[in-house]
Amino acid sequence: MVAHPAIWGLAAAAALIALAAPALGMRLGEPAVDVPPGQAVVQTTDAIHRAFPQTPSPAEVVVTGSGATGPRVLAAVAALQGRAAAAGPIRKPVTATAVGGGALVVDVPLAGYGSDSVSDQALATLRNQILPATLGRVPGISYAVTGDTASEYDFTHQLHDRTPVVLAAVAALAFVLLLVAFRSVAIAGVSILLNLRSVGAAYGLITLIFQDGRLQGLLDFTSFGGIISWVPLFMFVFLFGISMDYHVFILSRIRELWSRGSPADDAIVGGIASSAGVVTSAALIMVAVFSIFATLSLVDLKILGIGTAAAVLIDATVVRGILVPAVLALLGDHAWSARRIPRRSRA
Question: For 5-41+151-339, CATH number?
Answer without folding.
Answer: 1.20.1640.10
